[in-house]
Each structure stands twice: as C-alpha cells, then as structure tokens.
Amino acid sequence: MTDLRFDTYREEVIGRANVADSDELVDFYRDLESQSAAALWTIANKIEPWEPASSSVPIVWNYERLKPHVLRALGLVTPEQAGRRVVYLSNPGRPDVAAAVGWLYTGIQVMGPGECASSHRHSASALRFIMEGSGAFTNVDGHKMTLGANDFVLTPNGTWHEHGVSEEGSVCLWQDGLDIPLMNALDANFYEVHPELNQAISFPIDDSTATWGNPALRPAGETWSKRYSPLLKYEWAPTYEALQRYARVTDGSPYDGVHMEYVNPYTGEAPMMTMGASMQMLRPGEHTKAHREVGSFVYQCAKGSGYSIVNGKKLEWKERDIFVVPSWMWHEHVNGSASEDACLFSFNDLPVMRALGLYRAEGMLDNDGHQPIIEG
Ligand SMILES: [Fe+2]
Predict the structure, then answer these.
(1) What's the whole-model pTM score?
(2) From ligand 1's centre to the CA of 128, what distance in Å?
(3) Where residue 9 falls among pLDDT bands split at 50, 70, 90?
(4) Domains and CATH numbers, the chain
(5) For an engineered disulfide with 101, which of 36, 56, 73, 162 has Cβ 3.0 to 4.6 Å away?
(6) 118, 80 in Cβ contact below 8 A?
(7) 70-84 residue pLDDT tens
C-alpha cells in the first residue's frame, strides 16, 4: 500500500460510497489515472455533499480600513490604463475565481472629477451601489444617469456602459457587483470595448427613472421587450420612504425585518436575469431570527450599524461596510442601535437559483431561532 489514499471521503452510510483502499484497488485507480479517468466512488461523497457546502467564508470588509487603499489607486493608475479602477474583494475561500462569495464578484470603484472610463459591454450583468461623492454618472445604452449615495444602478449584460465623474464633482466611490465568476464557470463570458471608446447619449438625462420609476404607475402605451428592467436606476430617497411606509403597517419578516426587493416595473420580476437585489430595514434594537437559503448574498450597510451572525461568526458592520453570506449558511441580523434604524442593501444570485428550480429556505427552529456565536 502507498501512503496516497483514495478513500478519504468514505461514509459509513447505506447508499453512500464506502470503499476502503486495497492494494488491488489502488493499482486500479492508478491505471485509471493514466487514462485521464477515475472511479466515481472515490470522490462521490465529496462532489455530492448532503447539502450545499460552500467554500466561501463569511467575511466583512471594513470600509474605513479599506478606503485609504482604494483612494491610493487614484494616484497609481488612470482609468485608461486600468479599464476600470477597482479594488475587488476576494473571499479567502474563492481566490481562484475572484469571487466575493459563491459565483458573485464585488469591488469598490473610485473615480475623480473629470474622469471617464471607456465604454464596454460584456456577458456579465453588473450593478452599482453608490457609496459616496458627488457628480458621478453612468451611461447605459445611450441613457445617462446621475448618481447619488445609496442609489442602485443596473448595467445589464450586453448593454454598452461607462462611468465617470463630472468636472464639478468630487472623488466618487461605489460598489460594483457582477456575476463574472458565474459567467466564467459557464464558459460564457465575452467582453467588448466600444469602437468609439465612448457612446453617444441619445436620451434625456435620467429618462429611465422619470419614465419607469414612478410608484405603481406604468407609462401608458410604452412596452418593453428586453430581458432586464427598463428602470436602470433605483434612487435612495423613494426606496427609504417605501421602507418607512411599509414599516408602519407590518411586523416585517422574522428573518429580514422590513424587506423590499428591487424589481423590474414592467414584469415584477428581478431587475436582471442572474442577479436580484433588495433593501431591508432593521428597526431600532431589532434582532432577526436565523434562516438559511440556497443562494449567495453580498451586503452593504447603507445606514446605521449593527452585526450579523453567519454560521456562528459575528460580523460587525456600520455604514459602507460590505459583508457576505454564503449559500445555505445560517444568518441573522442585529441592529446595534436602540434609537436609529439600520438599512442593508444586498444583491444575490436568487434569479439563477429560482430559474433552475434550486431555491429553498428554512428557518432555525432551535434556541428560539438564534445561533450561538462561535467566532467573532
Ligand atoms: Fe462593465
């Protein structure tokens, strides 16, 4: 017998692979290797776990600590050199695929006054959540949008898009969220630079919000056939107002507090095919119960402070901090303030899970729905 084992994943359970190594079997496995093949039972229990076993780890990125590093990039590379001047957040469990969690990517982009990156398009769908600064804009297929803090913006897959900051603006930072790792996992990723580097603006500024961003009102006679939302910018003020109004008449979700999803106003579905997003408000002192879902989540604290417990790990957050909840991990949220509400923006891959019939969720029944803190 050699010391290289092939039976590491054995399980003493009927119906699961349970084959002990023998000299004869190890010979067999070696012969298979020489044919670029292998015996399924040596890895079956690993590649088909009993339940999702994410390699992503729960982690929070502290904005205060990260921001000076992001600002440093301003003086080190131009948007022309970098294409996109972004510091991306690399999950320690997913460095090989540049994911923040699961198959989702996130980063913090920084641009100074007068800067504009070149226009491009790609198979990956993208979204932005604006962190700070004034004068930022995003152009999407001829629609120009002005951006303010806590605005949520779409650049759906296949659309030409570019970002910049006006001359009169200040240094702007925003969070990018993309499904790049998913596109690469599917071997489906294309990227194109705009032939003229910048696109023409062919609609009135902020027309998408003026047309499609009115509550429960649809422009009469307008139709939409694309597979993403015609509303490309969801502004903070009406979003926060909606949460407050809803909070007056609901106890909210036991797991997520006062929780609202951003939707395509034409269909009521998720704004893009692969990624959904939501904003939730935790009322003063609120401590939600734990649940878990099939799907990966990237959060940014938009307002207030508190902490979340993810599979027993305490992640403390305040405004602008970014944290992740990997698939099928227990999570509960706590507003740390007794007087102020806290708001969490998040985006997720639930549209993919739902389209494939994979979504499920369950609430924690033990211990009154709360996890013990193991790490933090
Ligand atoms: Fe892009």
Answers:
(1) 0.96
(2) 10
(3) very high
(4) 1-50 (no CATH), 60-369 (2.60.120.10)
(5) 56
(6) yes
(7) 999 999 999 999 999
